[in-house]
Amino acid sequence: MNKHLQELIELSQIDKAIDGYNPQIEAADKKVAKVQKKIDTVQAELDSFNADIKENEEKIKAFEEQLKLLNDQLAENAKKAKEISTEKEMKALSLEEDIAKEKMTFANEEIERLQGINETKQELVKEAEEKLAALQTDFDKVKEEVDAEKAEIEASKAELFAKRQELSQKIEQKVLSFYEKIRVWAGNTAVVPVKKQACYGCYMKLNDKTYSEVIKAEEIVNCPHCGRILYLERISEEA
Predict the structure, then answer these.
(1) Burial class of residue 91, CB neighbours in 10 A (0-12, 13-18, 19+)
(2) Which of 120, 141, 170 is the last residue in one of the domains?
(3) Which has the least CB within 10 A, 15, 74, 116, 184?
(4) What is the CA angle 124-128-130, rounded to 5?
(5) Beta strands of 25-105 (E only): which ranges?
(6) CA 70 to chain centre
(7) What pLDDT is attached to residue 234?
(8) What per-residue confidence (pLDDT) applies to 235?
(9) Residue 83, pLDDT score
């Protein structure tokens, strides 16, 4: 087999092995992302509960301030009642008192209602915080496992990169450049085997002349259909 072809086959196999780790890395990252997504969901719920509680507390405070003003108004009306001399003034003052009392009743009911809601929300906050703590523990455990897994992968990739570097230095620069140009668009299928007289990159059948050249393996042969570098897998295995 042509020396350059043999080198490119080997280089292609190394590149394929290196890129073969990418799905493993992606799968490992997905494990972390999956737990993180759960944490984000619970955190969003927790933030929503706390925002609702804060909003209700502000409403309660506003109603309490209103009650203070209404109490002051009733106290002021009590002083005015002593100075009233006509029935008309008495009716007007009585109407003001009735309205103030209605407002006070409504304010007290709203305060009680909002406090009840906040009690329920506080329970939900407690549950969410417990869930968040448990998820954070899971996250730390998964992250530790994934980091260890990725460290092993990176170590294996480093070994392959070293082999690739060593091999690349041996390959003639013109041949290496030719391979890299094809690899830009073909990825790990820059060098592909021929099976049943077909290119296993584009799966198109080769003509007899091209197939004969591939069998001889005296020169680097490109697929006339897609441009990938071809080799006969049987010859490669024997080699």
Answers:
(1) exposed
(2) 170
(3) 184
(4) 120
(5) none
(6) 53
(7) 59
(8) 41
(9) 79
Question: How far, CA to CA in Å, does 93 sit from each of 66, 98, 103, 197?
Answer: 19, 9, 15, 106
Quick check: is 219 in a domain? yes
Same domain flag for 141 and 218: no
* DSSP secondary structure string for all residues of 94-160: HHHHHHHHHHHHHHHHHHHHHHHHHHHHHHHHHHHHHHHHHHHHHHHHHHHHHHHHHHHHHHHHHHH
Please tell me whether residues 101 and 120 are part of one structural domain: yes
Q: What is residue 133's predicted lDDT score, i.e. its pLDDT?
A: 97
Write the CATH number for 158: 1.10.287.1490
pTM for this model (two decimals): 0.72
Listed residue (112, 108, 123, 127) closest to 70, CA to CA:
108
Domain range spanning residue 182?
174-238
The structural domain count of the chain equals: 2
- CA-closest candidate to residue 23, choices 140, 185, 150: 150
191, 165: one domain: no
Give every CB contact of residue 200 below 8 A, 6+ residues apart in sequence.
192, 193, 194
Q: What are 62-102's pLDDT values in tens digits?
A: 999 999 999 999 998 888 888 777 888 888 888 989 999 99
Q: How far apart are the C-alpha atoms of 56 and 54, rounded to whole Å?
A: 5
